[in-house]
Amino acid sequence: MNCLNFINGEWIPAQSGATLESRNPADWRELIATFPKSEAVDVNAAVASARQAYRTWRLVPAPARGEYIHKVGELLIQHKETLAQLMSREMGKPIAEARGDVQEGIDCAFYYAGEGRRLFGQTTPSEMPNKFAMSVRMPIGVCALITPWNFPVAIPCWKMMPALVCGNTVILKPAKDTSTCANFLVWVFQEAGLPPGVVNLVHGEGETAGKALLEHPGVDLVSFTGSSKTGAEIGATCGRTHKRVCLELGGKNAQIVMEDADLELALEGAIWGAFGTSGQRCTATSRLILHRDIKDKFTAMLLEHTSKLRIGHGSDPNTDVGPLVNQGQLQRVSDYLEIARSEGAKVLIGGEIVKDEELQHGFFFAPTILDGVTPDMRVAREEIFGPVVGLIEVSDFEEAIAILNDTPYGLSSSVYTRDVNRAFQAMRDIEAGITYINGPTIGAEVHLPFGGVKQTGNGHREAGSAALDVFTEWKTVYVDFSGKLQRAQIDNRE
């Protein structure tokens, strides 16, 4: 397949003609697609297209903008299986998870279609007589959306759909590893009938295309999902030009299992949280904080279940754990296992690249459990982004909460307990944007805010109505029908 940029309603190559490759991580010999290696000149064209389209798109009534997004949702339903199969081949996600990824995009479409009829502002009494006061939401302008490879439909939809319904135009810069999924998704938006220039797609590398978007004076907002290190650099770049920026960054999430927990339920949560998407989630469970009274029993249960997980191609419906996305990610996880061993952690299972003959051409890493992990170890503090979970023993609930919070990140968190008092204490004291009680450290439902604290982001939230605060500006409007000058704080006081 030959992927192209999408600029001003047309599918075009990079002006240089240069291309990059997307390959199947389960078998790197399979070429999925080529895609443009865009440069600044391509970004310039996309920004010009988006700026021109913004002039008219912002004037389209918000309910009508919502109807376009609703059509996108209907089309995603029609193409759900095709897109899921493509996703599974391109980034390795097990097919059931890939279907869930597309479904999240569908849910997002129908939710934000409804927001087109809400976009509520406020009215409030004025201090002055014969004066009306209100606040309304206004679009920001051209939004650059830089998205990762691990949720190649859901995350672009989280960004594109609220941005569009608010009256902005967008330029999507997807991850190199999921260029084909991005092409398919943007084609769906095109099929929904959005006017030329409202949605644009620019492929390429972060160091070139991404950097050009960040620095372009015609871009009004940057929304980025990725590593905390890259997010800090993006924040600094945008800060120098006073460009609005929304950052959704890394996580080092923990699941607490107390002595009174339903261990079978906690086991299911730990397996899904640690090894779903091969641990390649910002919400992945990378720390299991276990009460000493149940640690041995729970560890034995965890080992037994992990040993039965089936590793294979994502397109195989029997696969539990697919490949890592590329060779670089495989090497990163492997390096962290060497760090873990050097720090004194004990590998209970896994800990190595899969050598099976059938999987030798893929980027597979065995699901891994580390014991004897202490809070000061690098593997307990740094985001690994692979199927690796560390076990940490605690003696009481207060210690568990303290260790959970002892991280530079604060995205998702989980506590398994039957004690309602502990549950409410956890909700109050855990430093994270998301807390689950008796559920795993997974992501969010589309109508609720998603995001974290500390180095996990810069305070903004995605999904839900909170996303509207990212993609709109508040404008306060006063209408004085008194027929005379009225000075607040002066004329209404003796």
Description of the structure:
This protein is of the alpha/beta class and 494 residues long. Helices cover 38% and strands 20% of the residues. It has 14 helices and 19 strands. Helix 3 packs across helix 4, helix 3 runs antiparallel to helix 6 and helix 4 packs parallel to helix 5. The longest helix is centred in the N-terminal third of the chain and has 21 residues. The N and C termini lie far apart (75 Å). The mean pLDDT is 97.
Question: Roughly what fraction of the amino acids lie in strands?
Answer: 15-25%
Whole-number count of domains: 2
Any idea of the CATH topology of the largest domain? Aldehyde Dehydrogenase, Chain A, domain 1
Secondary structure: number of strands: 19
**CATH arch. level architecture of the largest domain:** 3-Layer(aba) Sandwich
**Oligomerization:** single chain
- The proportion of residues forming helix, as a percent range, comes to 25-40%
The whole-angstrom Rg is: 24 Å
Count the DSSP helices: 14
List the helices and strands and how they pair.
Layout: E1 5-7, E2 10-12, E3 19-23, E4 31-36, H1 40-57, H2 62-78, H3 80-91, H4 95-115, E5 122-125, E6 131-139, E7 142-146, H5 154-165, E8 169-173, H6 179-191, E9 199-201, H7 206-215, E10 221-225, H8 228-240, E11 244-248, E12 253-257, H9 263-275, E13 285-291, H10 292-307, H11 327-343, E14 346-349, E15 368-371, E16 388-394, H12 397-405, E17 412-416, H13 420-429, E18 434-437, H14 466-471, E19 472-480
Parallel strand pairs: 7-8, 7-10, 8-9, 10-11, 12-13, 12-17, 13-16, 15-16, 17-18
Antiparallel strand pairs: 1-2, 3-4, 5-6, 6-19, 14-15
Helix pairs in contact: 1-7, 2-4, 2-6, 3-4, 3-6, 4-5, 9-10
